[in-house]
Write a structure and sequence with these properties.
This protein is an all-beta fold. Helix content is 0%, strand content 38%. It has a 3-stranded antiparallel sheet, with no helix packed on it. The radius of gyration is 21 Å and the shape is elongated.
């Protein structure tokens, strides 16, 4: 079972899918529905993003000769 301490900051749905609502800090609580005393919390911070960019990364590896076409 998932819940958010401050629903004015974020909401949680399904399998801990978190949606931001406003900037701030709150906690995501995970609680065992069979043992309510078994729980833990994760800090969540919603911050303003000024810029978002993707950096493409390429990695080249040597193929084993047996993996090359014609071998």
């Amino acid at each position: 079972m998932w819940s958010i301490v401050d629903p004015k900051i974020a909401s949680v749905h399904g399998s801990a899918q978190i949606k931001s609502i406003a900037m701030g800090k709150t906690q995501l609580i995970c609680r065992d529905h069979k043992n309510y005393n078994n729980w833990d919390a994760i800090d969540v911070e919603v911050a303003q993003i000024n810029q978002l960019s993707w950096v493409e990364e390429q990695i080249e590896i040597k193929a084993r000769p047996a993996a090359l076409p014609g071998n």
